[in-house]
Amino acid sequence: MELLGYIMALFIGFSLGLFGSGGSILAVPVLAYLFSLDEKVATAYSLFIVGFGALVGGIKQNKSNNVDWRTAIVFGIPALIGVWIVRHFVIPELPDILFYVGNFSVSRRMGMFGVFIALMVGAAYSMLRDNNRKGGSGNISYNYPLILIEGLLVGAVTGLVGAGGGFLIIPALVVLTNLEIKIAIGTSLVIIAIKSILGFFLGDALIMSIDWNFLIVFTSLTIVGIFSGIYIGKIIDGNKLKKGFAYFILVMAILMFIMEFLIN
């Protein structure tokens, strides 16, 4: 199972490099089911993996001048605060049983993975309609109150489930800052890197024991996969495969739902 998990680390990176998004959503189920990590550790490690994967993508986008750094900072700071609050203060205090519905108990794991499953469905839907994305005019303006609220909410979701949430950030950037779509995509990767990496080091790294050897090996394999995906993407059109990958994510979401809510 662990060997399969390391192969999946390569696949996560490969899909990120080939499609530019979506692959990191698989990090949590791989960590939880193939490496048997509990929900706190799986979502924490996912932040680290997602963050460095997004960093590689952000550097690549920056070389193509597709990153608006001012927007990344304006949106990234409240998003980072949202991640930090959830990882440092909320997650450690969540009880094993969140609440009861009659005789049915909803555990912390069910709650966290339930939100994550919803995020997987949203990510898959976003990939399926990717070709229909429309951006702003490029005349950048900032709706600071809404950016603060949206950034905090996106950061809180990231902190809760350990996923980057790019499909939430990109439309928010278009609507709230009027960015062109290609700039919004590149900028979102930088925002994900900022909030995920710093959120991990300012939150989980301070309050839990980290298996650095495992985390570095897994992340390194993911980054190798990213460069492989980028290379393959020059040979074949990743958009032609994206729909199939989106359905794969949906299947994974259904399996997670069955395992967490029906079998358990």
What does this structure look like?
By secondary structure, the chain is mainly α. It has one domain (about 1-264). About 75% of the residues lie in helices and about 5% in strands. It is built from 10 helices and 2 strands. A two-stranded antiparallel sheet has the order 1-2. A hairpin with a 2-residue loop joins strand 1 and strand 2. About 45% of the residues are buried. The mean pLDDT is about 85.
What is the strand and helix layout of this fold?
Layout: H1 2-19, H2 27-34, H3 39-63, H4 69-90, E1 97-101, E2 104-107, H5 108-128, H6 144-161, H7 166-177, H8 181-207, H9 212-233, H10 238-263
Antiparallel strand pairs: 1-2
**Biggest beta sheet summary:** 2 strands, antiparallel
Strand order, main sheet: write it out.
1-2
Count of structural domains: 1
Secondary structure tally: strands: 2
Low-confidence stretches: none
Beta-strand portion reads under 5%
Mean of residue pLDDT values: 86
Oligomer type: single chain
The value of Rg in angstroms is 18 Å
Question: What class would the helix/strand composition place it in?
Answer: mainly alpha
How much helicity do the residues have? over 70%
Shape: globular
Task: Compute the number of helices.
Answer: 10
Could you tell me how far the N terminus lies from the C terminus, measured between alpha carbons in angstroms? 20 Å
